[in-house]
């Protein structure tokens, strides 16, 4: 994590973020950061995260920079004409007050509108579909609403692609994609993790979950999920699959050396942190499905909504295609004896480079033809 804001901004230069906005609205008390990593393939789409950052603005900004870059990769890897962006809000006690929360969300929406469509916002940790409906009253650039052509909460679609990616990973390891009888741990039983746990139970898996939120545990317990006392206990437990579905960064190199699972595949963006976590997992024979491949379902749904031309059948088709892409990446990585994340990133960056080339050469080609 970066220690101060200037360090974070230097990082944004080296990651080539196109634009970083720090927002302070004195009237409402809103403190936020909006990071636009890339608009090379299209508008930068990424959720609005509202959470407490003990490290204050430097930590929040660091989160926005990492997450927006990950969104660039996710959109490109999913074959979407979208770029990567993310917004984070520093939550405090005032966020619990409905009127003050609404005032801050309105101030945030005005900032998004001011960016003119370069950034499109959506739901993430700490925000809901109702929040997206409120934002939509003040900006055109929001998806995941329940209004007009809105498709609502993207989390069920995210859970679907995570489930598909898990099945593919098990198939690549064992030659069997069945989830029935598998032991699967889900860290974070919120919007995605809760739905994922439900789908896994329906598929006949033995599901163990952990979440500090007692209500989330109760809901999952009622579906047949065994509740473990902590995420740390779940990380160490012998499992077929571990699905990190809370905040990112739960698996560093030290944790990677001790996890008890055979596959890591979840929805949390940037699930691994620090140097060497992915390599250490690989050395131990643990297959890590890159988070941005597994969790693309919500983004695919958001894209369908944004284009206003896709119906339910097309969404289904696009979610199925995500599973096929994940299979192709895992097989290519096995053949080339390299990390799936390296293969997936290579594909994603090459699509962006090709778009950059077209953009550069477009005017030249037009001039040559004239
Ligand atoms: N919602 C989507 O469609 C979507 C899409 C792509 C990626 N993601 C990512 O998936 C993750 C989950 O998103 P969500 O929408 O379900 O968020 P959410 O806020 O609904 O759920 C997160 C859950 O994690 C729990 N949690 C927090 N700290 C924890 C800990 N230390 N151990 C165990 N549980 C903990 C919270 O109590 C909460 O229940 C996030 O990283 C998000 O960025 C979500």
Describe the fold and architecture.
By secondary structure, the chain is α/β, with parallel strands linked by helices. The chain folds into two domains: 5-136, Rossmann fold, CATH 3.40.50; 155-341, Rossmann fold (3-Layer(aba) Sandwich). The protein contains 14 helices and eleven strands. It has helices at 5-14, 56-77, 98-114, 129-136, 155-174, 191-202, 214-223, 231-236, 253-256, 277-283, 291-294, 297-307, 312-336, 340-369, and strands at 19-25, 30-38, 44-51, 83-90, 119-123, 183-187, 206-210, 226-227, 239-244, 261-264, 287-288. The strands form two sheets. It has a six-stranded parallel beta sheet, with helices on both faces. Strand 7 (206-210), helix 7 and strand 8 form a beta-alpha-beta unit. Helix 3 (98-114) packs across helix 4 (129-136), helix 5 (155-174) crosses helix 6 and helix 12 packs across helix 13 (312-336). The longest helix has 30 residues, at 340-369. It is globular. The termini are far apart. It binds nicotinamide-adenine-dinucleotide. Nicotinamide-adenine-dinucleotide (NAD) binds at residues 124-125, 154-155, 158, 187-193, 210-213, 216, 231, 245-248, 267-269, 295, 298.
């Amino acid at each position: 994590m970066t220690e101060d804001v200037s360090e974070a901004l230097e990082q944004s230069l080296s990651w080539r973020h196109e634009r970083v906005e720090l927002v302070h609205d004195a009237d409402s008390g809103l403190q936020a950061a909006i990071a636009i990593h890339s608009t090379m393939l299209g508008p930068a789409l990424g959720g609005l995260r509202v959470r407490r950052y003990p490290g204050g603005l430097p930590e929040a900004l660091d989160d926005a920079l990492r997450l927006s870059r990950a969104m660039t990769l996710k959109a490109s890897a999913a074959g979407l004409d979208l770029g990567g962006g993310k917004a984070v809000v520093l939550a405090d006690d005032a966020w619990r007050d409905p009127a003050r929360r609404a005032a801050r969300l309105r101030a945030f929406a005005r900032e998004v509108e001011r960016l003119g469509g370069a950034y499109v916002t959506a739901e993430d940790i700490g925000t809901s579909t109702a929040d997206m409906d409120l934002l939509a009253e003040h900006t055109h650039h929001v998806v995941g609403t329940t209004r007009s052509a809105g498709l609502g909460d993207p989390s069920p679609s995210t859970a679907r692609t995570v489930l598909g990616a898990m099945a593919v990973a098990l198939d690549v390891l064992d030659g069997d994609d069945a989830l029935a009888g598998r032991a699967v741990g889900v860290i974070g039983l919120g919007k995605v993790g809760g739905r994922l746990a439900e789908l896994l139970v329906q598929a006949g898996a033995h599901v163990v979950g952990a979440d500090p939120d007692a209500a989330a545990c109760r809901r999952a317990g009622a579906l047949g999920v065994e509740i473990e006392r902590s995420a740390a206990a779940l990380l160490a437990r012998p499992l077929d699959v571990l699905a990190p579905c809370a905040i990112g960064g739960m698996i560093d190199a030290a944790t990677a050396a001790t996890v008890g699972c055979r596959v890591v595949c979840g929805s949390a963006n940037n699930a691994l942190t620090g140097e060497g976590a992915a390599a250490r997992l690989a050395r131990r024979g643990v297959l890590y499905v890159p988070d941005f491949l597994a969790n693309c379902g919500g983004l695919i749904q958001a894209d369908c909504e944004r284009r206003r031309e896709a119906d339910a059948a097309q969404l289904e088709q696009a979610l199925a295609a995500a599973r096929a892409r994940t299979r192709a990446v895992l097989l290519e990585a096995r053949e080339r004896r390299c990390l799936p994340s390296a293969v997936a990133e290579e594909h994603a960056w090459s699509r962006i480079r090709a778009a950059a080339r077209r953009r550069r050469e477009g005017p030249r080609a037009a001039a040559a033809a004239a």
